[in-house]
Design brief:
- With about 70 residues, this protein is of the alpha+beta class.
- The protein has one domain.
- It has one helix and four strands.
Length: about 70
């Protein structure tokens, strides 16, 4: 599952992964590798159910990152 945010970040998560990977550029997230990931977002033990939930968590991560900067 891949979520592209307007701020040019891409969050990628695959079922079974314990973290979602954050990429700074949409193009960097192509393929199945994690090379180029700039951060990870922990996934709940039950995982995520749909793209809307991944988007909500990714948006929250970006908001927190922006506040910290």
């Amino acid at each position: 599952m891949r979520v592209c945010l307007a701020e040019r970040y891409t969050v990628r998560w695959r079922r079974g992964d314990t973290v979602a990977y954050v990429f700074a550029e949409r193009e960097a997230a192509d393929g199945d590798g994690t090379v180029g990931a700039i951060a990870t977002i922990p996934v709940s033990k039950t995982g995520w159910t749909d793209v809307a939930e991944v988007r909500a968590v990714a948006t929250r991560w970006l908001r927190e990152r922006t506040r910290a900067a």
